[in-house]
């Protein structure tokens, strides 16, 4: 679609033009590459509005908040008044729920609230880390820089999630195909063969007997299997809703071979990068840790970080606190935190740790997904091979007895 824009160049001169792009965000990014700060962006021509799908999500997603932050950062950098910026974003929000959220924030701003204060009323969408960075920007007069930093953090998290999703999609499809294929074989194909063997009255080999038992169970008791499966899922979901259940589940996840190590490294990366960003923005260590204890999304790690925060409040150094929790903080974290404290650039060292583990986790994702594919093929081969062997053994026995 076509967008018309007004922007300010490096000489503070207003320039106008038309640009082809798929979204307003893309226009903003393209203008930035030309060292232009957008003032207004309007759609010149757009395709006919499509009917909303009944399956379309009405919830405000992380992607919606990310897009909101990017737009607000660009408009704030262009020196557009905050209320006007929010109004502009509201008008261009495709999702009604997001438009309503922006409207509510805008109304609070007009009533005299600060932006961070307005965000604080919506903890579901704006984390402590988000609110604190905005607060720092407001106090220091560098709100656009704070919003840009938040946007970078969100983009980094989104990239990790996207990498995981894209990497796991193919193996999960393969696994689903494997399960469906095996169910079809056992439920529909096997009974036709085993029925013929049963009519002969012959003694069947053990693998064939096992296969018949499994096949009969799947045909006659599939509903019981389904009930047990649904019940197990419901019980599990109810269990992890409780604090103790969630704590045990999150602790157990970190012990899963390969995947546990991956989740551990992602958690270290998110915590140290976020903590480093806050320290670089000028916030105190205790306030920075308070804002980042929940950033990993793992209740067990959050519990560890809360106890670490208490010790930092008591005056202990960050490296000393790390050293007491080697179940989470690696020797690299401890050494680099110590180096950062000694040299006075703790924020930079924390960001270096975070980037290192972000790179390591990306490599592990590739390794795990490359291992999953052959593993699924081998498992499918073994199961199908067993089914074929169990069906062929009686035929071999009959052939041998004839000869």
Give a written overview of the molecule.
- The protein has 403 residues and is mostly helical.
- The chain has a domain at 151-403: Type II secretion system (T2SS), domain F (Receptor-associated Protein).
- The chain is 73% helix and 6% strand.
- It has 16 helices and three strands.
- It has helices spanning 24-33, 62-77, 82-92, 96-110, 115-120, 128-140, 143-200, 206-220, 222-241, 243-253, 259-280, 285-292, 299-313, 318-323, 331-343, 346-402; strands at residues 2-8, 14-20, 37-45.
- Strands 2-1-3 form a three-stranded antiparallel beta sheet.
- α6 packs antiparallel against α12, α11 runs antiparallel to α12 (285-292) and α12 (285-292) packs antiparallel against α13 (299-313).
- The longest helix has 58 residues, at 143-200.
- The chain is elongated and about 95 Å long.
- The N and C termini lie far apart (77 Å).
Descriptive key words:
3 strands; mainly alpha; 3-stranded antiparallel β-sheet; 403 residues; Receptor-associated Protein; elongated; 16 helices; single chain
């Amino acid at each position: 679609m076509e967008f018309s824009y007004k922007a300010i160049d490096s000489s503070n001169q207003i320039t106008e033009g038309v640009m082809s792009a798929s979204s307003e965000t893309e226009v903003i990014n393209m203008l930035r590459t030309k060292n232009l700060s957008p003032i207004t962006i309007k759609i010149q021509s757009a395709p006919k509005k499509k009917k909303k799908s009944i399956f379309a999500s009405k919830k405000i997603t992380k992607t919606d908040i990310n897009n909101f932050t990017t737009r607000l950062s660009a408009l704030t950098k262009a020196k557009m008044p905050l209320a006007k910026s929010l109004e502009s974003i509201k008008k261009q929000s495709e999702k009604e729920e997001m438009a309503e959220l922006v409207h509510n924030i805008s109304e609070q701003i007009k009533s005299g609230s600060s932006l961070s204060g307005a965000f604080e009323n919506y903890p579901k969408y704006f984390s402590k880390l988000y609110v604190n960075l905005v607060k720092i920007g407001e106090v220091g007069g560098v709100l656009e820089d704070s919003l840009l930093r938040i946007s970078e953090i969100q983009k980094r998290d989104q990239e990790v999630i996207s990498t995981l999703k894209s990497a796991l999609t193919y193996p999960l499809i393969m696994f689903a195909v494997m399960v469906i294929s095996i169910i079809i074989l056992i439920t529909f194909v096997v009974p036709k063969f085993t029925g013929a063997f049963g009519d002969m009255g012959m003694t069947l080999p053990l693998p064939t007997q096992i296969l018949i038992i499994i096949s009969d169970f799947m045909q006659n008791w599939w509903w019981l299997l389904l009930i047990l499966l649904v019940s197990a899922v419901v019980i599990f979901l109810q269990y992890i809703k409780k604090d103790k259940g969630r704590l045990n589940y999150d602790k157990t996840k970190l012990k899963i071979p390969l995947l546990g190590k991956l989740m551990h490294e992602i958690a270290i990366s998110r915590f140290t990068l976020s903590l480093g960003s806050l320290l670089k923005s000028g916030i105190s260590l205790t306030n920075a840790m308070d804002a980042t204890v929940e950033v990993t999304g793992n209740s067990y790690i959050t519990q560890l970080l809360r106890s670490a925060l208490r010790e930092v409040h008591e005056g202990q150094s960050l490296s000393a606190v790390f050293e007491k929790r080697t179940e989470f903080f690696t020797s690299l974290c401890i050494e680099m935190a110590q180096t950062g404290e000694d040299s006075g650039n703790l924020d930079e060292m924390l960001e270096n740790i975070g980037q290192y583990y972000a790179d390591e986790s990306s490599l592990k994702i590739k390794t795990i997904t490359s291992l999953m594919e052959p593993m699924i093929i081998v498992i499918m081969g073994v199961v199908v091979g067993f089914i074929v062997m169990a069906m062929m053994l009686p035929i071999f026995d009959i052939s041998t007895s004839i000869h």
